[in-house]
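pasting for the record
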Amino acid sequence: MGQAHDILDRARKAREEKRFEDALRDHLWFHENALNVEPAMAGVRLSFALRDWIYLGEQFPLARRALQGLRDRDTARMLNGGATVQLFHDISAINSALGDERATQELFTQLDIQMPDLARQCADFALPALVATEDFALARRYIPQPLERVGTLAQRLNAYVTELAKSGSTASAPALLAYVLNYAKEVRLVLEVLRRQGDDEEAAAVSAAALDQLESPALRDAVQREFDNPGATIAAMVNHARGNAAPAQEQ
């Protein structure tokens, strides 16, 4: 493993050992520097690392304030000449971790007015916050072609499943379940916006296309289960993890 991975692990260990200042120092370093040394940590940086930071903040309030400070600093950059899609992604991920979707909605509203071209590029990252804050009118403007959007999402999922089948590996099952979960979440966001804006006919067409455009019957079944019972995919991921852990526990 690389330096960034090791430092994130060190932050977790420091938190568990109640060395909170050390943990915060490592989280700050990881957030600011991880991509410079390990670009592959991009996903971890805005998911698991932020989750761990929130855990630290529950025991050490200074850590939460530090994360809010980073968010405020980056928000100021967005509005004062330093705006980029990546920076907006960072801010929206931090706000999501903090449970402050309103801050993302307010920032995106300003981008919509002041920097509409950039707002179009950031819209996918803003959509969950717009739905959470019930700003459906603004969200609808950034989903001009719902059927096309869902078709693109379906193509990506089909391509991933095709590559997985070619590899013949079963080790990627958790990743496949994560893809299914993310696909279902994205489709549900689009459907929520359409329905709340009164576009019921288009919502029905999108709902049908979300399944019809999936090439694998098994994949359609998995997505249908998630639609019918939100959380079913997470339960399957947990069961898979437990199944893999069982042999080690029996030895």
